[in-house]
Amino acid sequence: MPTETVSRNVLLIFNREIMYNPVIYQAVMKFGILFNILEARIWPRQEGRLVLQLEGEEKRLEQAISYLEQEKVRVEILAERIKRDLERCVHCGACTGVCKTGALDLDRRSMEVMFDPEKCVLCGQCRMACPMAAMSMASIDMDVLTAR
Amino acid sequence: MSEVRVKKSIEEINRRINQGKAVVVTADEMVDIVAEEGPKNAFKKVDVVTTGTFGTMCSSGAFINFGHTKPKIRASKVWFNEVEAYGGIAAVDCFLGATQVKEEDPLNKVHPGRFEYGGGHVIEDLIAGRSVRFKARGYGTDCYPLRELEKEVCLQDLRNAYLYNPRNAYQNYNTAANLSERTIYTYLGILRPNLGNVNYSTSGQLSPLLNDPFYWTIGVGTRIFLGGAPGVVSWAGTQHDPDVKRGENGVVREGAGTLAVTGDMKEMSPEFIRGASIVGYGCSLMVGLGVPVPIINEDMAYFTGVANRDLFYQVIDYGLDYPNGINRSLGEVSYEQLMSGSIELQGRTVPTAPLASYSMAGRISRILKTWILENRFSLGVPQVPLPTTAFDRDRYPKLNY
Ligand code: SF4
Ligand code: SF4
Q1: What is the pLDDT of residue A145?
Q2: This prediction's pTM
Q3: Do domains A5-79 and A83-137 have the same CATH topology?
Q4: What separation in Å is there between the alpha carbon of B175 and the centre of ligand 2?
Q5: Which of A31, A60, B158, B178 has the highest count of CB atoms within 10 angstroms of its CB?
């Protein structure tokens, strides 16, 4: 029986000391997890940032994340960073037209907009589309110090 | 309108409301009642159907009188939180438009612009009780010597603040698509190239004017729900046009009637009036509005019972056609299809998204229902009818129920 896998979208920040180390390769080899690159940005010799979708058995994912942190990679779990302000949200649905992952989706019965942060890949489209400025999130450009 | 037979007058319905005997249902509920019992029985049973809509309505704004100062000023330029209001009326009156953008906003210089703050946001801030920075300038006269004024004000400090919306509650509205080859940022949202998605902005069977397609019961003087408080229809809205394409059920199939509405901001709630920022387009105001529709005859029962699957909208290309004033429809879709999440158009399945809140529209219709049931709200008798078109029953075969 295949073990159940989970997926987590993470932002990884590599400072200049470690940015050329093959830590992702190591994490993949050691813990048998899968990854998809969702976004990447490199400031040569300064910093590298990656938004990855990690997939694997829950325990192994957590081990992989601790391994990355041990290797001095800063790991931000994106689902913990994206928020919808329910005081601002009016359930208009404008965001559902641009959200490609189904993280924001209309419940066709109540016609309310449901939000599932686990499905979010942090593309930022909903923040642009929302007329109420209800969505806030970390992005690949996030200022880690102020966001903390 | 000689064809319209009133079998139950608004006065009679008001008496029933007063006696606590009126039967009031929402437009969503009425659809089921008419489907089950037919318009004739529904007419006998129901007195009032409440409607609702909640969406971006650009043609909105507020007349504000900020009260006389010592010494007095004849303010010709006025700002609230750096958003300019039109001061070209009497000394301390001004009109704050919903789409006026804050001074120094970068607009679309870096496209698409964000339009973070504008007139709609000021209106929301005021209604929410937040204070705003008020600035006025005058040129000085013998009777109004003061030339400059600056202070913090909140809604209670203003002598009058009335929402005066020249065009709200569009009866039917374009569904937007994009046939061009680039993503566009419109007042109907973000539209992907090559028919990537469509956006719509109406509340279907809950829409006020779709429930009274010939404006037999809604006119100047009709009392309404506006921004969480009682308001009134103050005139036909700008661009009101009854002479458009109608279906076999008499319901308009494209933009048609509109309402000008007025209400006192001091009674409103920030839950139902919200400033909006529409990326690449500008600032606006989201307005919550509901109209009670008296069921004066069987036909009104029929109309209020028309369901989402029988309401049709035109899909318009906002890539090339709309901006260039080309009048062409890419096809017609029902509200039910739009609500389902995708439509079939030009042989393709295209995802849909709403821009108006159906859940808020439903809430408004339920609040209005409660107001009437609790005898806190009576119906207004229209004093001036809205311009309409002749009603010829033979043209609408579906009305032979
Ligand atoms: S676009 Fe904004 S206000 Fe509208 S449903 Fe999405 S989060 Fe809520
Ligand atoms: S950032 Fe917004 S649009 Fe993008 S995936 Fe997440 S919820 Fe969807």
Answers
A1: 45
A2: 0.91
A3: yes
A4: 23
A5: B178
